[in-house]
Structures are given as C-alpha cells and as structure tokens.
Design a protein that fits this description.
By secondary structure, this protein is mainly alpha-helical. The chain folds into 2 domains: 78 residues, no CATH class; 105 residues. It contains 5 helices and 2 strands; from the N terminus they run αββαααα. It has a two-stranded antiparallel sheet.
Length: 187
C-alpha cells in the first residue's frame, strides 16, 4: 500500500513538471489552430470550442493548487509540532521555578512551615496534572516512606519534601530529554 501511495506521489510530482511545461504550449497550439482554421486528421479546430484553449491551463492550475495545499498541510503539521514543543518548554520552565521555590523556601526554610509545604505541594500537584497528566501528578503525590520509631514528624515531612523534589527533578529531566528528541525529529 505504501508503494502505491509513493508511486502516486512521484507520478503526481513528475506529472506536474510535465503539465507545467506542456500546458502553455498546448494552449497556444489550440489558439493558433482555431484562429488559422487548421485541420488535422479531419479535426477542424475552427469548429472546436474555445474551452480547449483554456483546458490545459485549468488542469495545470488544479494540479498547482493541490500541490500547494499538500505543502501547506505539511507546514501546518510542522508548525503544530513546534508549538507543542514550545508549550512543553514553557511548562518545563514553570516547573523548574516551582522546583527552585520548593528547594529554597520549603525544604530549606527556617523555621519549617507546614502550611507553606501544603500550599506548595497542592500547587505543584495541580500544575503537574494540568500540564503533564495524572501519571506525573501521582508520581509526585504518592510517597511511600517507612516510618522509624525515632523518626520525628518534622524529619518525616522533610523526607517527603526531599522525595517530592527528587520526583520533580526526574520529571524535568525526563521531559527535557523528550523535547530534545522532538526537536531532533526522533519522536
């Protein structure tokens, strides 16, 4: 099936070149033949319609239009791909800012603030779900820690934040690699 489509595309491209050269010549020939009342193999051009003069140009314009439309579709697809890449890069930049904020003002905050952690965590969860999907949000949100008997609540929460920051870093790296592959055309 792919070969048939490729053959049709090649024939169309080569046919366009042939028609673009032949259309003006054929049209001029028909116009001169009608004007001079030529007769070839019992065909009298004077009796033929003037539409035959325009027909080769009509075919040529139709083929030119279809080719231009096909090229436009390719350009549209590439533009959409670049827009998606740009949107991902913008989301990664925003996620990097949230990572930086979490590291500097939540994890390394002095004194520790539960409300600041909750606010930051909910903000990041919402952003991840909106921009990257439920999977990334769940990777960030769902933490499994084994609580030791001597583990103070404050240390447990700091461990959760550290794990969340690591999760964010991995997400940023994973999607940055994906964007680079898109730019290279490997995806």
């Amino acid at each position: 099936m792919v070969r048939i489509v490729k053959f049709g595309a090649d024939l169309f491209a080569d046919g366009y070149k042939l028609v673009s050269v032949a259309a003006p010549i054929i049209s001029i020939f028909f116009a001169l033949a009608k004007w001079q009342d030529w007769s070839v193999m019992d065909i009298r051009f004077a009796e033929m319609s003037w539409a035959w003069v325009i027909a080769p140009f009509t075919v040529w314009f139709f083929i030119a239009y279809v080719r231009r439309w096909l090229k436009y579709q390719i350009v549209e697809k590439e533009r959409d791909k670049l827009k998606e890449i740009r949107d991902f890069e913008t989301a990664l930049d925003e996620l990097s800012k949230k990572f930086d904020y979490g590291n500097n003002y939540v994890f390394n905050a002095n004194p520790w603030s539960d409300s600041e952690w909750d606010k930051w965590s909910k903000d990041v969860e919402q952003f991840l779900e909106e921009k990257f999907g439920l999977r990334e949000r769940n990777l960030f949100k769902n933490t499994v820690l084994f609580k030791e008997l001597s583990f103070a609540d404050h240390h447990r929460k700091r461990s959760i934040v550290a794990w969340q920051l690591q999760s964010l870093r991995e997400t940023i790296v994973r999607y940055s690699d994906r964007v680079e592959k898109w730019r290279a055309g490997n995806i």
